[in-house]
Write a structure and sequence with these properties.
Chain A contains twelve helices and four strands, in the order ααααβββααααβαααα. In chain A, β2 and β3 form a beta hairpin. Chain A starts with a helix and ends with a helix. Chain A is mainly alpha-helical. The longest helix of chain A is centred in the N-terminal third of the chain and has 28 residues. By secondary structure, chain B is of the alpha/beta class. Chain B folds into two domains: 40 residues, no CATH class; 156 residues, P-loop containing nucleotide triphosphate hydrolases (Rossmann fold), CATH 3.40.50.300. In chain B, the strands form two sheets. Chain B has a six-stranded mixed sheet with strand order 6-7-8-3-9-10, sandwiched between helices. In chain B, β9 and β10 form a beta hairpin. Chain B is globular. Classes of the chains: A mainly alpha, B alpha/beta. At the A-B interface, α5, α6 and α7 of A face α2, α3, α4 and α5 of B.
């Protein structure tokens, strides 16, 4: 469940990396902004409007997605395109700068406190095959599967996807094929941001709250997931996200028992970064990656 | 220099320097519609630079190129393709991680229209366009006789077939002018012969061909007109027979006025 959210966010990292060789560290903040906007919309129309909960929920997502796509396009245009030919480190610093800017903007707009997500989603547990799941969890996983399927279809079966893959292999050559490379790059940012918006709503809905700082840790973990799967590789991001979610949940669940209660489940975050270190040391190209060594 | 009333491509006063090296100085030429135009010259003469300028890959310091009266110079690369210029590369450049068919379909990008929304929603129109593109891409692969390898990763094809695939990909954008940069490089005699047939067939179909080639026999046998570059300057231009006996050309190739070029360049 957590894994599907990581996977959605990781896709944004991996698509941008695949096409530009850039780690967009502001991507976690796009997730956060998506969550914030969705909550604002849901709160604004949700109280006493009499609309059914799913409709309110969909309205929130429907506003958050285009807003985040616009934000992603702006990020690309303002922070990355002018630096396209600059050394990679410059663009990386620009990304971290944008991340700080977005956090602060969110802090000014939505305040420093936790913002609670209205309880719209079904949370009563059901027993399925010996496991306990809630409607929300099922919804999240189902939506993730649909989005990933759509993305794979887009990338592998359409004209735009072909242009994206061509651009990622060689921007100069893609241009010679008549591909408007600038537009494809912007489009890539927009798709990643749309997925980030959905992920933001999911995670806010799942935990019932959002916070201006939530994108930071989530972004790092999704980045870990992307590296685990092989950064630049779309299927890898999906696999890495799901794997990381499972590792984290199992780790958090069993760490208490394994250490005799010395370490508790609040050490959950350790696992993601232990995974990151292990992957970077032993298999820097990730589970499905091939090209990272020459790129890094 | 006059090659008819209305040339397809007009190159006017192109100059380009890389640092202190003057790669091209004041090159002008005109290419007639439905002709095969050869561009020859010793290594480092500026042939590929001129190609890069015409295709919008690099911007010239001075001068303009116009295709059918439309200015190419200053347009971004993808616009130049849309206006009708396609090219291949001296060192083959394919999308190695894609199949041969997909390479050709990327080449069709400029001539297809499906947008983001349609692509996501898989509208009827988009699906029809995809099907049409795939059929057209297959036809192009047939045309260059590599249809049997449509689904093979392009990087795994033998060298001669990769060259053919590059030509098919360039043709995919339905260009008015196709620029081939040393298409016969590294080919054996029979491969060169079938390449020659292919280029001839392109002209028959109404495509204009600009050809850089070291294989002088191929150039002289195939081209309607030939231009010779040396040290970035156009030193001769005309029908093959005239160029072949031009003293300036002989000197460029041999370094001194000497024997007939026929023996020198063959």
């Amino acid at each position: 469940m957590l894994g599907s959210i990581y996977a959605l966010v990781a896709l944004g990292y991996t698509m941008v990396y695949g096409i530009l060789g850039l780690i967009n560290f502001a991507h976690g903040e796009v997730v956060m902004i998506g969550a914030m906007i969705a909550i604002s919309v849901i709160v604004a129309i949700g109280t006493g409007s009499g609309l059914p909960a799913p409709a309110v929920m969909i309205a929130g997502i429907a506003v958050a997605i285009p807003a985040c796509m616009l934000l992603g396009a702006l990020l690309e245009r303002i922070a990355y395109r002018p630096l396209r030919d600059a050394p990679r480190l410059t663009a990386l610093i620009s990304a971290i700068g944008m991340s700080i800017v977005l956090q602060n903007v969110a802090m000014i707009v939505w305040g420093r406190q936790y913002i609670s997500f209205p309880p719209l989603l079904p949370n009563e547990p059901h027993a399925v095959l010996g496991a306990t799941v809630t409607g929300t969890q099922v919804l999240i996983v189902a939506l993730t599967v649909v989005l990933m399927g759509a993305l794979l279809l887009l990338v592998h079966r359409t004209r735009l996807g072909r242009a994206m893959r061509a651009t990622s292999q060689s921007p100069a050559l893609a241009g010679l094929m008549g591909v408007n490379v600038d537009r494809i790059i912007m489009f890539t940012f927009m798709i990643g941001s749309a997925l980030a918006a959905v992920a933001g709503v999911m995670i806010a809905g799942y935990y019932g709250q959002a916070h201006y700082h939530m994108g930071f840790m989530l972004g790092l973990k999704a980045f870990t997931a992307a590296v685990l799967g092989g950064i630049g590789n779309i299927s890898g991001a999906m696999l890495g996200g799901l794997a990381l979610g499972v590792i984290e949940s199992l780790g958090a669940g069993y760490i208490g028992a394994l250490t005799g209660g010395f370490l508790g489940s609040h050490y959950q975050d350790v696992f993601a970064f232990a995974v990151l270190i292990v992957v970077l040391v032993f298999r820097p190209s990730g589970l499905l990656g091939e090209r990272v060594a020459e790129r890094a | 220099m006059n090659v008819g009333p209305e040339p397809l491509l007009r190159v006017h006063g192109i100059s380009k320097a890389f640092g202190g090296v003057q790669a091209l100085s004041g090159v002008s030429l005109e290419i007639a519609r439905r002709s095969i135009y050869g561009l020859i010259g010793p290594n480092g003469a500026g042939k590929t630079t001129l190609f890069n300028v015409i295709t919008g890959f690099i911007a010239p310091d001075a001068g303009t190129c116009t295709l059918d009266g439309r200015r190419l110079t200053g347009e971004p690369v993808h616009r130049v393709v849309q206006l009708g210029v396609a090219r291949t590369f001296q060192n083959i450049r394919l999308f190695h991680q894609m199949s041969a068919l997909e390479n050709v379909m990327v080449g069709m990008h400029a001539r297809s229209t499906a947008g983001a929304l349609g692509a996501v929603l898989r509208t009827r129109r988009v699906r029809d366009e995809e099907a049409r593109m795939e059929a057209a891409a297959h036809a192009l692969l047939e045309r260059v006789s590599i249809a049997a390898h449509a689904d093979a990763p392009s990087g795994s094809l033998p060298y001669g077939l990769q060259r053919r695939l590059e030509i098919a990909r360039a043709l995919a954008s339905s260009p008015k002018l196709i620029a081939l940069d040393e298409p016969a490089a590294g080919m054996n005699a029979s491969e060169t012969a079938s390449l020659r047939e292919l280029i001839d067939a392109l002209r028959e179909d109404g495509t204009t061909v600009l050809l850089i080639e070291h294989d002088v026999r191929l150039v002289m046998g195939l081209c309607d007109r030939v231009a010779v570059l040396d040290h970035g300057q156009l030193i001769a231009e005309g029908v093959p027979a005239a160029v072949q006996s031009d003293p300036a050309v002989i000197e460029a190739y041999l370094g001194a006025p000497a024997a007939p070029v026929a023996t020198a360049v063959r």
